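Encode chain A's predicted structure.
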Amino acid sequence: MAALGWLTPRKRSATARSVLAGEAAAEAGLKSSQEIDGVGTAPAGTAEPLVPDFPVIGDARAAAFFDLDNTVMQGAAIFHFGRGLYKRKFFQRRELARFAWQQAWFRLAGVEDPQHMQDARDSALSIVKGHRVSELMSIGEEIYDEYMADRIWPGTRTLAQAHLDAGQQVWLVTAAPVETATIIARRLGLTGALGTVAESIGGVYTGKLVGEPLHGPAKAEAVRALAAAEDFDLARCAAYSDSHNDIPMLSLVGHPYAINPDSKLRRHAKDREWRLRDYRTGRKAAKVGIPAAAGVGALAGGTAAAVALHRRRR
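Encoded structure for chain A:
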């Protein structure tokens, strides 16, 4: 996949692989947004009333960038996707126990652990290798209905809708596979999605990534590349995330928001007077990030949901 090599050279703190991952994500996102274009905007549903003082109506050079896991959706998309693949016998029951604690930990901590997410992505690559992209896209549609649709945060959905109503583009930016992210973006009526790009040849996954997972600095690179391609003014754009890992992306825009933040991001946001929204309920949820609707059932369901795309024993 050709990256957006026409971007103006500059000094970057990100690694070369982060840059490649970001630019590949931007290119894949632009391509997938052409498919989303024309699909009607999804209704706000039961979202809580919210009249933000931002965005500015009619400011087409502004856009909004939303992290996915625990920002737009309760839990991690890659784990929910893995649950669906397990149901369809993409991998075996004996693999569950070793990795069940990852999803349980994620639900308790409410934050991404890079090593946990890396393990899940490595597994995803081994599991999907040799499968057609079209097959996984079709399955992904089913999995969204089964495990993801009811986990969208109404409050964050309202924020995204405010940008859409103002005539602005709204993009998901996530470490989840770009195909999964594109499905979610389309279902929510968003413009498109930037996600981790898995290499495919002739429409078949090779088991390799383009660059690296879209995580941390790579997300900022993806947003930067997309802004260059779409002529966005980043000082007028907004970004939303729950994780301190996304501080590079949040720092890139003029309107950063901390949504359901982990403790590190909460401190960082308060120090810099960033706007903060927390759609979880209860003191414990605010502290450790257990989804509002989850309660005890969330932890009990963590083991089942931890059928993440985990590493196969070779």
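The first helix runs from residue 16 to 36.
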